[in-house]
Amino acid sequence: MHEDVERVLVTERELKEIAQKLGERITKDYEGKKLLIVGVLKGSIYFLTDLSRYIDLPCNIDFIQASSYGNSAVSSGEISIIKDISQDLSGFDVLLVEDILDTGRTLKYICDMLAKRNPESISIVTLLDKPARRAVDIHADYVGVDVPDEFVVGYGLDYNQSYRNLPYIGVLKRSIYE
Ligand code: IMP
Ligand code: MG
User: From ligand 1's centre to the CA of 167, what distance in Å?
Assistant: First the structure.
């Protein structure tokens, strides 16, 4: 375990099981649809690459990147789009892939923006959900696992752009960010 990590919250093995379970559910739900998987950069990349290999359907994959200002452990709520999806959404059933649903502001902003582009539908799959922190009215259609209100890193999730490559989800020691 990394020395900055207090404890492991989701192991490598559990992460694989989550990707498989959700991938199989999504495969059933999206059969016959025109699926566009959209990863929210950068945190979702590990989850997206694992999850999509369990989605046994034809699909397109694209990415979007939003930024809430600053590099702190708390998101500011002011959101802007840094990188937009490069394809037309009309006719597509869009599946947004997120690393963690925290206040929900980022996904709410993205969903509202994409909804104006005539997609067939928009759904959300998030690896982690922190329901205690929700500030806006949004929920994920598919959730890997609920987590307590602690700052977590690894498997794509960062603190100041570090720790993304840890193969597990761990709780970051408070001394690192306080
Ligand atoms: P929201 O807009 O507050 O829902 O924030 C969503 C984004 O904040 C996530 O996509 C993450 O990038 C980041 N975030 C929120 N909580 C954590 C955490 O515990 N660890 C790492 N990143 C987090
Ligand atoms: Mg993110």
Answer: 18
